[in-house]
Amino acid sequence: MKEETRVFLMENAEEQYRDFSKSLIPGDINMLGIRLPILRKKAKELAKGNWKEELESEDIYFEEVMLRGMMLSYAKGRLDEILPYIEAYIPKVNNWSVCDSVFSKMDVLRTDRERTWEWIQPYLYSDEEFKQRVGIIIMMQHILKCDEKGHTLKRLRTISYEDCLNKEEEEGLYLGRILEALDRPFPTYYASMAAAWTIAEAFCCFPANVYAFLQDNKMDDATYNRALQKIRESLIPDKKVKEKIKEMKR
Question: pTM score, two decimals?
């Protein structure tokens, strides 16, 4: 980041918040301790200016890596114009916090879901844990949970066991392709957790299709059981559904 941006970050650092945040993220992280709302506000401000120039500087702190990604989330431009910058950014992502905070808000990826779907394929099947997690989070947030107009798809208010049995084909949605992409083992922890999270989110939107998928799939036991647990932790499925889901544990 440019020096004036780094000064701003250091002025907003909180030691206690840094210590708390570092306890949640494994590894040796050079963190200042800055709250996400402050980073998002600064990223929006920078994105209105010459954000490409801001990207030319190297990052020292965890928050600078986060801010770099957030700027790309808020930058104005066509998808094909911004994708090369996102591609250059992804190798910097080495923890769940940066991955999820940045890519959950990158709405430019919703402007052409077919282009985004094609683009994330190498990441979905990467051998690198966080590249794979990036692909899965993008798939969940901007393809699964997004309608044809780019608006967020709402979860169901409640899910009964009968809802789980009334399977219908969802025309025009990517659900089938998403479930196919998840129908395999995920040997690394953070990719596995992202896959399980995506299955649970899909269940809360398309319970019958996902319930059928859970009956017959190639997921490893750990990822499969994590998906079941996340479904049971949701407030949307009713008691009977949660009991049925519990019985499916491997």
Answer: 0.93
